[in-house]
Amino acid sequence: QVQLVESGGGLVQAGGSLRLSCVVSGLPFSSHDMGWFRQAPGKEREFVAGGRNYYADSVTGRFIFSRDNAKNMLDLQMNSLKPEDTAVYYCAARPRKFARGRFGYSSADEYNYWGQGTQVTVSS
C-alpha cells in the first residue's frame, strides 16, 4: 500500500519559516518523481516545487525542495512566508518519466499518488 504522509504545517506570521516533510512508503522511492503542490480555498491545485529542483515563480528564492532517497523522504523549506502562501500543501509521486524543464513536472494530473495534505496558514 502506497502512503505519503506530510507533516510540519501550522500557523506562522508573515516573514516566518516552516519546514514540511513527506515520508513515502510502499513504492520504490528512488524511481519516482516527487513534487509539492498546494491548494488554497476556491483555487485549483498548483505546483510549488519538485522534479530536478524546479519551482513555481511565486516561491522561487524563498522555498527549497529536497529529497533523501535513503530515507524515502522529501522536504520543503519555506522561508519569508507570505499570506498568499496560505494553502493545504500536498506531496505527490509518479513513476519517473522523461521530462524537460519545470513544466515537465508541474501538472498535477500526471501524479499517481498523493498525501492527505497539511495546512499552512500565514497571518499578516
Q: Which features does this protein show?
A:
49% strand; 0% helix; seven-stranded mixed sheet; four-stranded antiparallel sheet; 124 residues; mainly beta
Could you say which structural class the secondary elements and strand pairing correspond to? Answer: mainly beta
How much of the sequence lies in strands comes to over 45%
Overall average residue pLDDT = 96
Q: With helices defined by DSSP (H or I, 4 residues minimum), what is the helix count? A: 0
Cα separation of the termini: 40 Å
Folded structure, characterized:
The chain is mostly beta strands and 124 residues long. It has strands spanning 3-7, 10-13, 18-25, 32-39, 46-50, 54-55, 63-68, 73-78, 87-95, 113-114, 118-123. Strands 2, 4, 5, 6, 9, 10 and 11 form a seven-stranded mixed β-sheet that branches. Strand 4 and strand 5 (46-50) form a beta hairpin. The radius of gyration is 13 Å and the shape is globular.
Break the fold down into its secondary structure elements and pairings:
Elements lengths: L2 E5 L2 E4 L4 E8 L6 E8 L6 E5 L3 E2 L7 E6 L4 E6 L8 E9 L17 E2 L3 E6 L1
Parallel strand pairs: 2-11
Antiparallel strand pairs: 1-3, 3-8, 4-5, 4-9, 5-6, 7-8, 9-10, 9-11
Outline of the structure:
The protein is mostly beta strands and 124 residues long. The chain is built from no helices and eleven strands. The radius of gyration is 13 Å and the shape is globular.
